[in-house]
Amino acid sequence: MKLIDGKKIANEIKEEIALEVQKIKEKGGKTPHLAAVIVGHDGASETYVGHKEKACAQVGFNSTVLRFEDNITEEQMLQEVNKLNNNPDIDGFILQLPLPKHISEQKIIEAIDPKKDVDGFHPINLGRMVIGLPAYVSATPAGIMELFKRYEIETSGKDVVVIGRSNIVGKPMTILLGQKANPGNATVTMAHSRTKNLKEVVAKADIIIAALGVAEFLTADMVKEGATIIDVGITRVKSDKTKSGWKLLGDVKFDEVSEKCEYITPVPGGVGPMTIVSLMLNTLKAAKGEIYPKE
Q1: Is cis: bond before 88, omega within 30 of 0?
Q2: Quick one: 54 and 98 in the same domain?
Q3: Over 80: is that where the pLDDT of 241 sits?
Q4: 153 lies in a domain?
Q5: Sign of the dihedral defined by the CA atoms of residues 43, 49, 52, 58, in that order
Q6: Do 148 and 250 share a domain, yes or no?
Q7: Where in the sequence is the domain holding 262, given as residue range(s)?
């Protein structure tokens, strides 16, 4: 079993980004600027935004966090998004989800300028990705593709099962791995809660991407010998063995599955750090006008 060390790869990429930002600054160019919008006081969202702020500082970006109380109206949110769209100093921004129930997430996402949508959630970016045009790709799938690339894990001709069909991970992942590219060229099955004979479907896979958010769902009897396992899940559960009283579990029962597979990502330290660094890469692309040329 070989551990896919997302933390190590993410740190390497951060160093690469930092060097590029340094060169941009030395030439008198503009410092990339990422903004985050957070509504309410969700602990997980605060933690995630904190990680993004830290990553921005590490690579030399400017960062801004806009915090709003959860009684903000949908109209006010749309106005704030419009301000960010029209702020020339901000290259990209992200909307921390979930939003309060009285605000339509889709309506807010669609109000974001696709050129600044570094989360890759806007339908225009999703559509461009589907047909193979340059686009901001959702950070977690982009991070997983980078892990395949840097660990030289062959995907061409492989049978891949993606468990989960979210717009953020499952759907983009199936599209990216099925594209005529490297990594890519895989035969991809999307499995979910309505999949019949799920265990048999998953057990045939050369590569399994578990992204359904159910702690330790994937067990050894669902995995064939020599498979590659990518664990996207992260669930916080109570534990009397940690100082915090909590521990993080993935969608994969790591101890037993790791004995059968060739490659596996841990939780934490696998996909999570790659999600953050992919957001940094998208922001750098936005600052350089790589996806949408600057006017």
Answers
A1: no
A2: yes
A3: no
A4: yes
A5: negative
A6: yes
A7: 139-272
Report the percent of the chain where pLDDT is more than 70. Answer: 100
Q: Which amino acid appears at position 20 of this protein?
A: E
Catalytic status, residue 52: yes
Domain count, the chain: 2
Residue matched to tokens 């939780």:
267
Given the residues 5, 91, 117, 119, select the one marked as catalytic: 119
Is 231 an active-site residue? no
pLDDT at position 164: 96
Report yes or no on 231 lying in a domain: yes
Q: How far is CA 74 from the centre of its chain?
A: 26
Whether 165 and 255 map to the same domain: the answer is yes
pLDDT tens across 60-118, in order?
999 999 999 999 999 999 999 999 999 999 999 999 988 999 999 999 999 999 999 99
CA atoms of 66 and 70, how far apart (whole Å):
13
Residue 163 and residue 110 share a domain: no
Q: From the candidates 5, 14, 52, 91, which is the catalytic residue?
A: 52
Instruction: Specify if 191 maps to a domain.
Output: yes
The model's pLDDT over 199-230, given as tens digits with 9 standing for 90+, comes to 999 999 999 999 999 999 999 999 999 999 99
Closest CA to 89 of 26, 24, 25, 33: 33
Assign residue 213 the CATH number of its domain. Answer: 3.40.50.720
Chosen domain end from 90, 121, 152: 121
* Catalytic pick among 14, 96, 158, 253: 96
